[in-house]
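Exercise 7b. Backbone tokens:
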């Protein structure tokens, strides 16, 4: 990548997604967009990349997070002298206080039960928190929301792009380039991840619906280039987004076809969609399955039927078209 304004720093991660990109913006403020994971290798490589740019970690004035996932937000404490900017909805994962951990565990216990998981899968609730070990524990100094300008970076503003995570943002420049986090990646489709609600008695977010709207919002900008969190820059954003939305709808309608054969639980659908990997990646595959079910319910294609014990049974509606 060769851009005189945006410096891409590629950092290794311990996660299946592979390397992550952080971005250095030099303006009135020295800004780092995302940090990479909190690992020894991540710190070493990021420090070396900054040195190549003539900088030390303490020279970073501010860190802007596109979202809270540990491959993007791990080293918040490493840049302790920098101001931390992010969306308010990311903070609960960044600080992880006792009330949030309680909500997290309560939500996933109920979510797994409603999805129809057998009891022995409940051990996954603790495993789902393991990736958080690759990130610091630091609160946000200044919140960013739709339309905000990035301090010290003339011409850069915030676009809320929730879905892949709650609190996900993208940075839009006045010359139509975008730093997009994990909203749009050339070689893989981002997974809108199920997250707990923002309170015990509140409904959980519907990330697939949010994600689709965020993609449409980005397409409407007709960006000249999208700098992603992973992989190569995206030059054909509008075309790629159209393909991604079409593929997701096709996936959802395939799920409906399975339910037309037999009404069943999210877990049973998950096993049919991901027969080879659901045991090893149950959190991700179940999240994607429920995303498709959310999408179908939202568009009136299926219904969540009466509870069978504690598991939700889904059934297809006939004669309804998207």
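Sequence design result:
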């Amino acid at each position: 990548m060769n851009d005189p304004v945006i410096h891409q720093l590629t950092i290794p991660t311990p996660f299946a997604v592979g390397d992550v990109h952080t971005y250095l913006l030099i303006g009135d403020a020295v800004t780092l967009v995302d940090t990479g994971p909190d690992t020894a290798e991540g710190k070493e490589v990021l420090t070396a990349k900054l040195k190549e740019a003539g900088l030390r970690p303490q020279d970073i004035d501010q860190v802007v997070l596109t979202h809270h996932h540990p491959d993007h937000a791990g080293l918040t404490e490493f840049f302790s002298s920098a101001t931390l900017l992010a969306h308010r909805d990311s903070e609960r994962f960044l600080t992880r206080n006792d009330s949030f951990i309680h909500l997290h565990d309560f939500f996933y216990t109920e979510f797994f039960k409603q999805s129809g998981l057998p009891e022995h899968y409940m051990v996954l609730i603790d495993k789902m928190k393991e990736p958080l070990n690759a990130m610091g524990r630091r609160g946000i100094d200044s919140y960013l929301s739709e339309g905000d300008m990035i301090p010290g970076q003339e011409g850069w503003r915030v676009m809320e792009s929730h879905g892949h995570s709650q609190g996900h943002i993208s940075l839009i420049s006045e010359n139509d380039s975008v730093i997009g986090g994990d909203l749009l990646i050339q070689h893989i489709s981002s997974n809108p991840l199920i997250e707990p609600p923002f309170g015990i008695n509140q409904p959980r977010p519907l990330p697939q619906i949010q994600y689709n709207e965020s993609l449409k919002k980005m397409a409407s900008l007709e960006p000249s280039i999208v700098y992603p969190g992973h992989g190569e820059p995206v030059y054909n954003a509008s075309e790629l987004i159209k393909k991604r939305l079409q593929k997701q709808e096709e996936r959802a309608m395939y799920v409906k076809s399975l339910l037309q054969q037999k009404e069943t639980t999210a877990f049973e659908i998950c096993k049919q969609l991901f027969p080879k990997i659901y045991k090893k990646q149950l959190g991700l595959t179940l999240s994607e399955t429920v995303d498709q079910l959310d999408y179908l319910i939202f568009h009136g294609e299926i219904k969540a039927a009466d509870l069978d014990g504690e598991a939700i049974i889904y059934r297809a509606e006939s004669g309804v078209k998207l």
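Instructor comment: The two ends are 40 Å apart (CA to CA). The longest strand covers residues 20-26.
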